Amino acid sequence: MTNYFNGTIQTLETRVADKLSDYRFQHSVRVRDYAVKLAHDNGVDEDKAEVAALVHDYAKELSDETFLSVIKAKHLDSDLLNWGNYIWHGVVGAEIIRDELGIEDDEILNAVREHTTGGAEEMTPLSQVLFMADYLEKGRDFPGVETARQITDQSLAAGVRYQIVHTVLRLVKKETPIYPKSITTYNYWLNRGLLN
Ligand code: GDP
Ligand code: FE
Ligand code: FE
């Protein structure tokens, strides 16, 4: 734990609770529980999974102005300016998490960056664990969630494939803009997800 966050897990929980509404903090705790289980089942570092999951939505309730100023101050990809909170809270959120919480581990920060869209191409097992835990935590209740849980219990990669296919399908059906990285993740995992 001390390697990933300069304090106890209780301190980290308090920092996240102070930053979020109760509703979203409870989501983060459920993602933590699911991520630790998936990490255990897949031989992934459970402490890393716990930290990544607790902080994954840390930036989600910040204002658009805050994200825009961080994108400019840190000279992040200017294409980010064309998107919104749903993309910023992961990609820009990782920078905020590093600065405010002192979490420096690149694997954790990348898992946070990739938690909404997937990682475009290959994702570390930790990234896959966080991506799936956010989708499958016990409070999630969408058609197919039980199927998605069962598939993920069989194979983490098959779960990633299931999620990205169904998310892209849902976004297309709603005629919502799709972030290019989501499409690249879809193309890659369509075939990759069949392997282990
Ligand atoms: P949350 O932060 O726990 O609510 O979950 P996520 O970070 O995974 O997703 C945030 C929102 O972004 C969800 O409503 C996703 O369906 C949505 N989302 C994911 N990928 C894309 C995308 O490429 N385009 C758009 N418009 N929305 C997306
Ligand atoms: Fe999120
Ligand atoms: Fe989340």
From TrEMBL:
Q: Where is the HD domain?
A: 24-139
User: What EC designation does it have?
Assistant: 3.6.1.41
CDD domains attached to this UniProt entry: HDc (cd00077)
Q: Which GO terms describe its molecular function?
A: bis(5'-nucleosyl)-tetraphosphatase (symmetrical) activity; metal ion binding; nucleotide binding
The record's annotation in InterPro entries points to: Diverse_Catalytic_Enzymes, HD/PDEase_dom, HD_domain, HDIG_dom, YqeK
**Enzyme superclass (EC):** hydrolase
- Cite the Gene3D superfamilies for this sequence: Hypothetical protein af1432
Annotated SMART domains: HDc
Q: What's the catalysed reaction?
A: P(1),P(4)-bis(5'-adenosyl) tetraphosphate + H2O = 2 ADP + 2 H(+)
Keyword DNA-binding attached: no
Give the UniProt keywords, A-Z.
Hydrolase, Iron, Metal-binding, Nucleotide-binding
Q: Which NCBIfam families match?
A: bis(5'-nucleosyl)-tetraphosphatase (symmetrical) YqeK (TIGR00488), HDIG (TIGR00277)
Entry protein name: bis(5'-nucleosyl)-tetraphosphatase (symmetrical)
Q: Which organism is it from?
A: Leuconostoc citreum (strain KM20)
